[in-house]
Design brief:
- The chain is α/β, with parallel strands linked by helices.
- The protein folds into 2 domains: 29 residues; 193 residues, 3-Layer(aba) Sandwich (Rossmann fold), CATH 3.40.50.
- It has 11 helices and 7 strands.
- Strands 1-2-4-3-5-6-7 form a 7-stranded mixed β-sheet, sandwiched between helices.
- The relative contact order is 0.08.
- This is AB hydrolase-1 domain-containing protein.
């Protein structure tokens, strides 16, 4: 009897494992609507990046879809981002998850890990370039990046990398000897936009990077998730992660949706941004001046 019970338990256990694996696969592929493609992409200096593409099956060169490139934290690998990839891909958004340099099946980088974060987002920037040039089912006007912890820092820096190229091109276009003189022509603006290959970003964490200098280099739709007890909260200007008490990092992020003139007006009326906006009459001209719509979410 005891041997029969053990055998039955073994059979039931194996059966449950098989069912669980099959059901997990169905969830991961949105019940067959998403194709998961493993990749290993060569980058510079003999390095490579390994990861997966969650490709909606209805995407093609004739039916282009948005792309989100998502990066894990320092002590994780690409599978930490599976839940984001599953939820986005089932909404017809392609997703690239990857092992950052020094992680998982990817190679090391030519720099130490934190220097690699600053240089290329430990792989995020090379993947943007790869997708932009090689994936014909991706809408290049709708490429976004997101990440948590180390991946969040890579997201900030990737947005700055492309945004700074955009603003540099606009400055060159305003030179007296440029095509349109001090006026930016349509072709000059088109060229500047072509350099800004990332149009949206969602860093999760690392709000300590939130400053006017950083936002002056970002030209993208921007979201931000940060918890009061998130990592590094002790390193913020007020010594904690409470952003509700006029924390400079939070105010800068929210205030970044306005043009410089609008920001100064709000600051002159009150040190409390929310009160300043509440008591100020926002005109149609103010709304028209919002050249970078940004959504900020604090959790």
């Amino acid at each position: 009897m005891e041997k029969k019970s053990i055998r039955r338990l073994l059979v039931v256990s194996v059966f449950m494992i098989i069912v669980s694996v099959c059901f997990s696969s169905l969830l991961q592929t949105s019940f067959g609507k998403t194709e998961i493609i493993d990749f290993r992409i060569p980058t510079e200096n003999g390095q490579w990046l390994s990861g997966q593409i969650y490709k909606p099956k209805d995407s093609s060169s004739d039916n282009k879809v948005p792309l989100v490139i998502t990066e894990h934290g320092y002590l994780n690998n690409r599978h930490m981002q599976n839940i984001n990839a599953i939820e986005l891909s089932r909404r017809s958004i392609a997703v690239m998850t990857f092992d950052a340099y020094y992680h998982g099946k990817s190679s090391s980088a030519s720099q130490p890990v934190m220097e690699a974060v600053a240089a290329n987002g430990v792989g995020m920037i090379p993947l943007v370039e790869f997708a932009y040039k090689n994936l014909d089912y991706i809408d290049n006007a709708r490429i976004g990046v997101m990440g948590h912890s180390m991946g969040g820092m890579s997201t900030w820096l990737t947005l700055m990398y492309y945004g700074s190229q955009y603003y540099a091109a606009l400055e060159e276009a305003k030179a007296p000897d440029s095509e349109g003189g001090e006026e930016v022509t349509d072709s000059e603006l088109k060229y500047a936009n072509s350099l800004n290959k990332v149009t949206a970003g969602l860093p999760i964490g690392n709000i300590r990077l939130s400053s006017e200098e950083v936002f002056s280099q970002i030209h993208a739709n921007f979201g931000l998730i940060y918890g009061q007890f998130d990592e590094g909260n002790y390193d913020l200007s007020q010594g904690n992660g409470d952003l509700s008490n006029n924390a400079p990092e939070g105010l800068v992020a929210i205030n970044s949706i306005f043009t410089l003139t609008f920001k100064k007006t709000a600051k002159e009326k009150s040190s409390n941004l929310f009160e300043a906006i509440r008591t100020r009459k926002i005109t149609d001209e103010d709304i028209a001046a919002l050249d970078k719509p940004i959504q900020v979410r604090f959790t």
